[in-house]
Design a protein that fits this description.
Number of helices: 3
Shape: elongated
Helix content: under 10%
Structural class: mainly beta
């Protein structure tokens, strides 16, 4: 489309004549003296830079460009030929804001829009008053059309005035050009790197720890390892090499779950097993769109092959990724090319298997305050308290006896994982020990027995109230102190 000025042709002829007569130097001197300026202004910052990131703007979003005049005298009409890179931006609209330089007066306007440009001009109607000073001419809204990514990290272009004094000009009330200096703008759109993670995740806890005890797992039992990605961008292909200690764990199988990152895109998955390692990967189906965001890549099931013991109460190993960017990578397709060095941070996991010991505290209480609280008085009952927290326990059995006697068993049911159990043990014969044996039962019908706890029983002389083995004034003092005590008293 042929570009035409909005204002009368005679004005353009005058401009051309002035140019032919060599008055360009003169107009430049006037512009410098008067300081009239035509500017591209960002209304949000007041500057000429239009800087955005993909965290602020996306393809399809818009921004406003103010076209302003500074220190103009006797402005009666104006026109701009405004340009941008059409591969990055598109035209949305041009309008006169309410506070434009000709606000409240009758104006005539016209525009011409093409690929990468808009020509727009406004003139006062006859009888209107010209403008003096600084103000906004118009506002142009542009649309972002080119995205940025880890591959194309930044795009930019000039926002320029073209054909100064021909298609971009100011006119006074006499139809003469008003000299000016043009200040262009800059559009810049940048990709802000977000950290992409490949993670080993325990689906039961959401972290990378796989901690078990012999109360929870035994040799042959399995657990699932999720391999996930966070902040993926245009992911087409992934591959991992997961490693573990083959003396502690064994591979069972690997699978792509139904809610994987390529769900519905017909992914092809392949794998190869090595000693203590699995190489496994998937590619999105032909013609399918890549994946962006967070999700699960695959699930790998491992089994326990070694158990801890009292001599080796804990065994552990890393669950790691091997050969980052070679055997373990995230990949995107750029056109027909593959980029195997998609940057990411690998967050690995840890497997830990413990021999479970229970820290059970047995606290006997007696009706008299003995110096040695673990030495109950002969032939008096002993009140035993057990407060213990253990995982997955359904109930426990406490057994007690004197050596060579039969075991007496009392069951206790756990509330969640904590039990507070109290049992009165009858008085025992003179001089000896009481043995306590605890057997915990948990899911699956398996059991695990703790160590044996013993309480010594001393043969105290008659009248030994405080249990120190001697009858003296201390015993009398205790009797005085607790004179008139009742059985229900503390």
């Amino acid at each position: 489309m042929k570009k035409q000025s909005v204002l009368p042709a005679i004005v353009l002829i005058i401009v051309l004549v002035i140019s032919m007569l060599g008055f360009q130097i003169w107009t430049g001197q006037i512009a410098e003296a008067q300081g009239t300026r035509l500017k591209v202004v960002n209304p949000l910052t007041g500057g000429n830079l239009f800087e955005f990131t993909d965290a602020e703007k996306s393809v399809g979003d818009t921004f406003v460009v103010n076209i302003t005049v500074v220190d103009v005298t006797d402005l009666y009409g104006w026109q701009i030929y405004f340009m941008w890179d059409p591969s990055l931006l598109d035209f949305s609209s041009v309008e006169l804001p309410q506070d434009n330089v000709f606000a409240g007066q009758t104006v005539i306007s016209a525009s011409d829009v093409g690929s990468g440009y808009v020509i727009y001009g406004v003139s006062l109607a006859p009888g209107m008053n010209s403008f003096n000073g600084t103000g906004t001419l118009c506002q142009i809204t542009l649309i972002i059309t080119q995205s940025v990514s880890p591959v194309v990290r930044e795009v930019s272009c000039d926002l320029t005035f073209a054909n100064l004094d021909v298609d971009t000009f100011f006119l006074d009330t006499q139809g003469w050009n008003i000299p000016f200096v043009a200040f262009n703008g800059i559009y810049d759109y940048r990709y802000v790197p977000t950290i992409t993670y490949m993670k080993i995740v325990n689906p039961l806890t959401g972290d990378g720890w796989f901690n078990f005890t012999i109360l929870q797992k035994t040799v042959g039992d399995t657990f699932i390892v999720n391999i996930t990605v966070v902040n993926a961008f245009d992911l087409d292909v992934w591959q991992i090499k997961l490693t573990w200690n083959p003396s502690l764990l064994a591979f069972v199988h690997a699978e792509i779950p139904s809610d994987n990152v390529f769900a519905g895109k017909n992914p092809l998955a392949v794998g190869a097993l090595e000693t203590g390692a699995l190489v496994y990967g998937a590619v999105v189906g032909p013609g399918q769109t890549p994946f962006s965001g967070n999700g699960t890549l695959c699930q790998i099931t491992l089994s326990l092959t070694s158990t801890p013991s009292e001599l080796a109460p804990e065994i552990s190993c890393d669950l790691g990724f091997s050969n980052i960017d070679y055997d373990t990578f995230l990949c995107m397709r750029v056109g027909t090319e593959w980029n195997a060095y998609y940057p990411f941070v690998a967050l690995e996991g840890s497997y830990n298997y413990k021999y479970y010991t229970i820290d059970a505290k047995w606290t006997p209480t007696c009706p008299w305050p003995y110096v040695n609280s673990t030495t109950p008085r002969m032939n008096e009952p002993v009140l035993v308290n057990l407060n213990v927290t253990v995982p997955d326990v359904e109930y426990a059995v406490l057994s007690f006896r004197r050596p060579s006697e039969e075991w007496y068993k009392v069951s206790m049911v756990f509330n969640a994982t904590t039990a507070l159990w109290t049992q009165t043990i009858p008085g025992q014969a003179r001089n000896g020990t009481i043995e306590f044996f605890v057997e915990f039962w948990y899911g699956g019908g398996n059991s695990y027995a703790t160590s044996t706890y013993t309480f010594k029983v001393k043969d105290l002389p008659a009248g030994d109230v405080n249990g120190d083995g001697v009858v003296n004034m201390k015993d009398i003092a205790f009797c005085v102190i607790f004179f008139n005590s009742k059985s229900q008293d503390p």
